[in-house]
Amino acid sequence: MPKRILTGTVTSTANKQTVTVSVTRRFKHPVLQKTIKKSKKYRAHDENEQFNVGDSVLIRECAPKSKTKRWEVMNDEMVAEHEKVRAEAAAEAQKVEDAAHEAEAAH
């Protein structure tokens, strides 16, 4: 199962190797059809303590690091690896789609 990746803003760096990241999501209310913004705070592991308050970061799910930390901040290598995997998956999906179109055109 793929790990979830969220984008958020660092709101606190008070603890050692830990940052608090606020993630905001927007969705339509099911009945009122009004756009609603909700935010949630996640505690994420920051191994090198390289992020400061106000930085925009990507966090991904991981095995529990402590009682409250279930996320880790993605560094440049992790982001590059993630983009590579996404590009490969998109290319594979494109091949499948092209094959389906060719099969449909043959009929």
Automatic annotation (TrEMBL):
Any one GO cellular component localisation term in the record: cytosolic small ribosomal subunit
GO molecular function per UniProt: rRNA binding; structural constituent of ribosome
UniProt-listed InterPro entries: NA-bd_OB-fold (IPR012340), Ribosomal_uS17 (IPR000266), Ribosomal_uS17_bact/chlr (IPR019984)
GO annotation terms (biological process): translation
UniProt keyword list: Ribonucleoprotein, Ribosomal protein, RNA-binding, rRNA-binding
Organism: Sagittula marina
Pfam families: Ribosomal_S17
Function field: One of the primary rRNA binding proteins, it binds specifically to the 5'-end of 16S ribosomal RNA.
Lineage, uppermost ranks: Bacteria, Pseudomonadati, Pseudomonadota, Alphaproteobacteria, Rhodobacterales
HAMAP family: Ribosomal_uS17_B
Record's keyword annotation contains Transport: no
Oligomeric form and interacting partners: Part of the 30S ribosomal subunit.
Ranges for region Disordered: 87-107
Protein name per UniProt: Small ribosomal subunit protein uS17
Membership in a protein family: Belongs to the universal ribosomal protein uS17 family.
